[in-house]
Each structure stands twice: as structure tokens, then as C-alpha cells.
Design brief:
This protein has 263 residues and is of the alpha/beta class. Helix content is 35%, strand content 20%. This is GTP cyclohydrolase 1 type 2 homolog.
Length: 263
């Protein structure tokens, strides 16, 4: 059976390590590279529930998007059972579950996070967003839509719990997308002539200033905008390793809930 190291090498063919940002931590992060693999679980994040799911399913490997350790927002200094991250890592190690993470390299990859997002939203002939570092994509709709109609389309396509948006009074036709927290590329979307930008984790002042800048902003959520790539990873791994059972996590889902007064 294929080893973790062999699977990592094949994943780097899809999303080369060199395209990851310099602060990022990608590739095989946990477990033995010589571990033979018969079952893989794919998830956006490795949570306690995902770890329990992998154990119950008899998986030797989890392939995830977000790094489980040594990333800028959650550096590993200790591995202790009385801390959330330490408890998770010890659980994975105790059950001989290896971890491979494909993060910003998968964001930038052809066929990666942002191409999957553009495809799910039915953008025509998407390509790299001009003037940025290769993460985001831009494309057109088959016909212009009013913003409320397009938001309904986005919500349904991404299975969102809720959507935050700012209406600049423009119909939607030329659209930029950035899975996850890509708010820093708003200026690139404007410079490229896009009327609408879909991403997540936008801040108050971006919404406040959107009308004045002439761009519709749609914050569809971090999980919904990135989760479509998990289906791509499942399909890719199945095609590369037909003898391995690969499935997408059933336990990991959007964690943000919305309350709206009057509902």
C-alpha cells in the first residue's frame, strides 16, 4: 500500500510546496512517513470531531487544508494533554494517525481552492486576478444579475448559514473570488474592473467604504468559501490511489451561526 511520504509527494504535484507563503507550514506534519495507508479522511480543518471520525473509520491519514500545527496563528510551543491543541495532537499520535496539510499552496494551485470556488459559483473562464499574488480568481457570469439574486445563488451554491454583504448599487457580472480571508485583495479586484468581490473575514471599514469604492462586497464565510476544495482533494486522491478508501469528513461543517432579529 502507498505510504504517507508517497501520498505527500503526489499532493505536491497538485499543489507545489514552493507556492506556499513563506510563513506557512505545509506537507507532512505529523506521524511516520513510512506509515502505509489504506484509508484517508479529508477535511478543511482537523478538529477533535474530525480526529474522532478518523479513529472510528480506521484511517491512517488525514489530509486537511488548514495546518494543524506551527502556523502563524497557532504556533506549537508545548504538547500537553491539558491544552486544546496538545490534546488533539496527542490523540492523533496515540492512534497512529498521520497528517498532511495543503494550505496556501493549495490556495494558489491550478484547480485548487480558488478555482474550485469559481467553478461552484459558475464563473465563466476564470483566471488569476490581475495585480495580486496568484491566490484569487476572476471571471464573468453568463448574464448580469442583480445583487440580491446573486447572493441567493452564492448562498445556495456554498450552503452558507448566512452572508454579510455591502451593496454598491451595481449589477453583478465581473466577479473576483478569494477563498478564506482574502480581504487584502479588495484593491486588486477594484483595479481589475470587478463589480463584485466574494471572500470572507472582511472588516467593518471595508463594508463601510464599499459603496464609495464602487464594489459589491460579499462575505460568504471562511468555511463555505474553502470547503469546495475538499471534494477536489477526495477526487484527486481516489484517482491517484485507486486501492485506498478516501472520503470527506461528515463531522466538520460551518461553525458560525447567525441570529437575525425577528426570525
Amino acid at each position: 500500500m502507498p505510504t504517507v511520504q508517497e501520498i505527500e509527494q503526489r499532493l505536491f504535484q497538485l499543489a507545489p510546496r514552493e507556492s506556499a507563503m513563506d510563513w506557512d507550514n505545509v506537507g507532512h506534519l505529523l506521524g511516520s512517513p513510512e506509515q502505509e495507508v489504506t484509508r484517508i479522511l479529508v477535511a478543511l480543518d482537523i478538529t477533535e470531531a474530525v480526529a474522532d471520525e478518523a479513529i472510528a473509520e480506521g484511517c491512517q491519514l488525514i489530509v486537511a487544508h488548514h495546518p494543524v500545527m506551527n502556523c502563524k496563528w497557532l504556533p506549537v510551543q508545548t504538547i500537553r494533554s491539558d491544552t486544546p491543541q496538545g490534546h488533539l495532537l496527542m490523540k492523533l499520535l496515540t492512534h497512529d494517525i498521520c497528517v498532511i496539510c495543503m494550505h496556501t499552496n493549495l490556495d494558489a494551485a491550478e484547480g485548487g481552492v480558488n478555482d474550485c470556488l469559481a467553478s461552484v459559483l459558475e464563473l465563466i473562464d476564470p483566471g488569476p486576478l490581475r495585480g495580486e499574488a496568484g491566490l484569487c480568481r476572476m471571471g464573468n457570469l453568463s448574464a448580469p444579475l442583480m445583487l440580491p439574486d446573486f447572493i441567493r445563488h452564492v448562498s445556495k451554491a456554498l450552503n452558507c448559514n448566512g452572508i454579510r454583504y455591502a451593496d454598491a448599487g451595481r449589477p453583478v457580472y465581473q466577479v473576483a473570488v478569494g477563498g478564506g480571508a482574502c480581504g487584502d485583495f479588495e484593491s486588486a479586484a477594484i483595479a481589475a474592473g470587478c463589480d463584485t468581490f466574494i471572500t470572507s473575514d472582511l472588516n467593518y471599514h471595508q463594508f463601510l467604504d464599499a459603496a464609495g469604492k464602487g464594489i459589491n462586497l460579499i462575505d460568504a464565510g471562511h468555511f463555505p468559501t474553502e470547503d469546495p476544495v475538499c471534494r477536489k482533494l477526495v477526487a484527486y486522491l481516489k484517482a491517484q490511489f485507486s486501492q485506498i478508501t478516501v472520503h470527506k469528513s461528515a463531522s466538520h461543517r460551518e461553525v458560525i451561526q447567525y441570529y437575525v432579529e425577528g426570525e
